[in-house]
Known about the structure:
Elements: H1 2-32, H2 35-63, H3 70-88
Helix pairs in contact: 1-2, 2-3
Protein name: YqhV family protein
InterPro entries: Uncharacterised_YqhV
Keywords: Membrane, Transmembrane, Transmembrane helix
Amino acid sequence: MVYVASALLYMVLLRLVSGSIELTVAGLMYKSHDLEKALALNSMLALVGPCILIVTTGLGVAGLGDKISFQKMLCLFGGVVLILLSLKMK
C-alpha cells in the first residue's frame, strides 16, 4: 500500500511539473511576440508531453503491478504506444 501511495504522489508531482512547464512556456511565447520563437518553444513542449505520459503511466502500472494482470499491462502500454504513433501521423 505504501508503494501505491508513493507512486501516486510521484505521478501527481510529475503532472504538476509538466503543467508548470506548459504555463511557463506559454508565458514565454506571449512575451516574445515572435511567431518563430513561439513555434520553437512549442516544438520543445512536444518532447515534454510524451515523456511525462510514459513516465506517469509507468509509475501507475508499477504501483498496481500486483493488482492487474500482465495482459492488462500490455494493453495499457499498447494504448500509450498507439497514442504516440497517432501523434506522429500526418
